[in-house]
Amino acid sequence: MESLQIFFENADFVVVNKPENLNFHSENQPGLVVFVQKMFPNDTIFPVHRLDKMTSGLILFAKHKTAAQQLGELFAERKLQKFYLALAHGKPKKKQGWVKGDMLPARRGSWKLSNTLENPAITQFVSQLTVPGERLYLLKLHTGKTHQIRVAMKSLGVPILGDLRYQETAKASLADRGYLHAYAVKFDFKGQTYQFVLPPSQGAEFQKPEVQMLIQQWAQPWQYFIKE
């Protein structure tokens, strides 16, 4: 593959722009972690979090073990804020608010949201109409569960456009990608505040003028969310 875009780098960590349709770990072909490690042969790279294959956008890697531990603690303590963009067709059960519930295994590696709250996935979101029948969602993760946003969106009655696992296959296969993008990250580290924002560059639907206008309005996504 072509070289990855390094969005930011210092002595402790690197922020990478992950392309859509690239596995995080190697499966039948090399995954993201392998490519990042090759770009930094003198460092031992540690992923701080992960992204699904269909998801594009910002992902953080520590460049040494101490940084990995420190950044991992921020993530575990919910002090590393992550914001995502998603596109979906249809009318959601609600247009903004919270999605909370335990994640339960479903068929063939999928997950489903339960009404119980023993160890819940917590997602906060706002949304805006782009064109009739389509909305852009800005989502903030308060936990880091597998498929969390994808399951949250399905529970709202609006699975992510192009999501081959959670949207009806006939509809999902018409899209040129899965429309989930890791849009922004904000955290404090070693006395400094870091905030990174990267609009999506892949996917025809993300490039529509109506969508681009909303993304520009959400240039500082943390302003749209109150604390839990």
Automatic annotation (TrEMBL):
Q: Which Gene3D superfamilies match?
A: Pseudouridine synthase
InterPro entries linked: PsdUridine_synth_cat_dom_sf, PsdUridine_synth_RluA-like, PsdUridine_synth_RluA-like_CS, PsdUridine_synth_RsuA/RluA, RluA_PseudoU_synthase
Write down the superkingdom of origin: Bacteria
Q: Which GO terms describe its biological process?
A: enzyme-directed rRNA pseudouridine synthesis
What CDD domains does the database record attribute to this sequence? PseudoU_synth_RluA_like
Query: What sections of the sequence does the record tag as coiled-coil?
Result: none
Molecular function GO terms recorded? catalytic activity, acting on RNA; pseudouridine synthase activity; RNA binding
Q: Which residues form the Pseudouridine synthase RsuA/RluA-like domain?
A: 12-154
Q: Name one Pfam family in it.
A: PseudoU_synth_2
Q: Tell me its family.
A: Belongs to the pseudouridine synthase RluA family.
- Output this protein's name: RNA pseudouridine synthase
